[in-house]
Amino acid sequence: LGLALYAGSLCAASRAAFLYHDYCVIGAGPSGLQVAYFLQQASRDYVVFERSHAPGSFFALYPRHRKLISINKQYTGKSNSEFNLRHDWNSLLSHDGRLLFRRYSRDFFPKADVMVRYLEDFASLLKLRVQYNTAIVHVTLERDEQAWNGHYFILTDQDRQNYKCSSLLVATGTWVPNVVNFPGSEYVEGYETVSINPEDFSGQAVLILGRGNSAFETAENILGVTNFIHMVSRSRVRLSWATHYVGDLRAINNGLLDTYQLKSLDGLLEGDLEDLAIVKDKKGKLHITLRFYLENRNTSTGIDSITLPQDELDNFATRAPYDRVIRCLGWKFDFSIYNRSLRMMPGKENKKKYPQIKPSYESRGTRGLFVLGTASHSVDFRKSAGGFIHGFRYTTRAVHRLLENRHHGVPWPSTVYPITQLTNSIIKRVNEASGLYQMFSVLADIILLRENATSFEYLEEYPVGVLAELEMQTGRKAPNGLFVVIMEYGRNFSGADKDVFYYNRAVGEAQHAWQSNFLHPVIYYYKHLPTEREMRLRPPEWSLPRPDAVHHIVEDFLTDWTAPNAHILPLRRFLENCLSTDLRNFFAESCFLFAFTRQKLPPFCRQGYVRMQGLVGSEGLRRHAVEAGLLEDYALTDSSGDRAPDTHKESQDPLLGDHVMPVRPLQHLVNAKDE
Known about the structure:
4 domains; flavin adenine dinucleotide binding; single chain; monooxygenase activity; alpha/beta; seven-stranded mixed β-sheet; FAD/NAD(P)-binding domain; 19 helices; 25% helix
């Protein structure tokens, strides 16, 4: 008995040592707050750990020159809130209309301090459960077959307090500065600490390492006071308007390109930074040389004994000495706090600054560990907007929906419509949906067809990378085929070396829609849900495997896909061909005639007219239809009772024309045109 009591007390003490939550979120930046909002709306047990005293600590320091490059468009000419989010790159998703970023700033490119205030209000007004001043310093696993994922996550903070969680959501972003070590790198100043006062650079020659927005932001700040600025990186400059990737160089920061190309002393160079070396002379000037010149040499003997490139090549590009060298190489994910048991591994090649994750945003090494926000950008790096607020607010919502289905049996939200609403549903979404628009090629709407294609189930913004797992991930079934609605750019339109302003760059004819270059809707049709093998073997640049049929809605200068002939009619014909049915709308007179003359009624008549549904007719509506040519004025007869001339001898509809019955007396009722 004594041993049993002792063992029980040990178990109680062990439980007391761990504070348990179903969900633990590390980081109270934008993605951490966004997932906290969804968890709170679902009444889940969660906590957010934030090392700072307030949310959004990254924005308290960065960008250093305090101007964001995420647009804040005040006016769009539309009142539709979902459409307006397409041009609001800063707001998080919530039900509270006060928490739209345009209520905090009218600047097109807002100040970073406003973002800090916005995130503070988002956390406080929504009463999110954020535990501040809590730095998680170690994360490991505890195996337990009773746990959701076969293990618990054990988190330890700076005060050695332990927390136990069933699911771990990492929203720390990428905040560790990228550093390149080479001889003389101790003379380099970091973007995170360099002065932002332009006067400190007056009359100086400056070399900037890097070629991203932080590098050009730094150059823009001192462009007017320096002798000259040189910028070096291993890759050529990539302009966001050419690549259509918002993480590449934005126009707001590209003043140095003007001064370079217009020969005003500034310039850009390409070279591997690891091959460089910096030597400091007696006057404090910094000379650029190459690493191999310093091999087997004693640099302490002074610069005079060191061979510089200009000693052999007298027009060496960087032969002029510099007063300062600034490192602006971006950031990477902090892997240091994760125990080996979690197998959090960096990505490969240009994705090595991000952890390896699946298209579902779950870690490849550990089940139940999801990466959110900027750190999850490996899924769509250099392709879409998943590394930025206007993108990851939607991917975060997708992750929450996956978790709701996996752990709580809540299927992915969906709406069931009659098949007659298929065209309208697609047109509405492609013209309004912000998630499809911002996360192009990554998130898609899924339309699951019901038996005999009499109705369909509409799922919004599902990650297409896990399309093969749709039934397991959403709790929805797809036995009868599906449509996938996604937004795409033209295949060969985006790239650092592309001229996106060439003549005839846009397509205007519906028959050439497949050649559209700018962002436009694409609808894929699959008779069966693609398999994992088909997803794995698809070409690298393809979002989806080869479909049974595909339709491009032609690009539109106004991104308004509502033109009856150019947009809606070709889409409807495509859907009709896939489903072998007629998706037109008809007046009651046409349905009445079809009931007597055809073996099979169109879906609109079956689901509307036959069930006594539809608009109630009136003399005014009938007169309008006659004047518009949509109905015959069969009420007009001569005094002898003869009917009006019959101008519609045969049905104009090839889908219905196979089952015509020769009932001539009623033929004058035919409505040859669809509504």
